[in-house]
Amino acid sequence: MDLRIQFSNSKELINLFKEAKDEHIEEYAVTKQTITELQKNSLQKVKNMRLICSYCKQIQNDQDEWKKASEITDDLSKITISHGVCPECYKTEVYS
Ligand SMILES: [Zn+2]
User: Fold this and answer.
1) How far, in Å, is the centroid of ligand 1 from the Cα of 2?
2) How far is the CA of 39 from the centre of ligand 1 (A)?
3) 2 assigned to some structural domain
4) Residues 6-39 pLDDT 10s
5) Is the same domain home to 63 and 83?
6) 35 with 53, same domain?
7) Could you tell me the distance, in angstroms and rounded to a whole number, from the CA of residue 90 to the centre of ligand 1?
8) What residue numbers bound the domain in which 26 lies?
9) For 62-77, how does the pLDDT look when each residue is reduced to its tens digit (9 = 90+)?
10) How far, in Å, is the centroid of ligand 1 from the Cα of 13?
């Protein structure tokens, strides 16, 4: 494309560049917002993750204390459980 023919005056060309720049700025803001949302979501997932001891079935709460499942006050619908080993069982079952 011959720009000399397409754009008869420089104002038209400048406006076109401005529009493209604004579009990029907008896209950047949306991308940044998406990344922030994703980071927030993964942080929340980590915060909502609890370990259950494979041996004694105690669950680690958000204060890093190991409690019986009946003593856990977290909203169970919001937490994800993963298997682990509590310090006591690590001593008696794993490291003995
Ligand atoms: Zn245990």
Assistant:
1) 75
2) 32
3) no
4) 666 788 889 999 999 999 999 999 999 999 999 9
5) yes
6) no
7) 7
8) 8-43
9) 888 999 988 888 777 8
10) 70
52: closest CA among 30, 36, 26, 74?
Answer: 74
| 71 alpha carbon – ligand 1 mean position (Å) | 15
Residue 4 has pLDDT above 70, yes or no: no
Residue 87 domain-assigned (yes or no): yes
Which tops the pLDDT comparison, 80 or 86? 86
* Same structural domain, 64 and 89: yes
pTM as predicted: 0.58
Domain count, the chain: 2
User: What pLDDT, on a 0 to 100 scale, did the predictor assign at position 76?
Assistant: 75
Who's near 60: CB < 8 A, 6+ residues apart?
50, 51, 52, 53, 66, 67, 84, 86
- CB burial of residue 23 (10 Å; 0-12, 13-18, 19+): exposed
Distance from the alpha carbon of residue 53 to the mean position of ligand 1, in angstroms: 5
Distance from Cα 91 to the centre of ligand 1, integer Å: 9
Query: Is residue 60 within 8 Å of 89, Cβ to Cβ?
Result: no
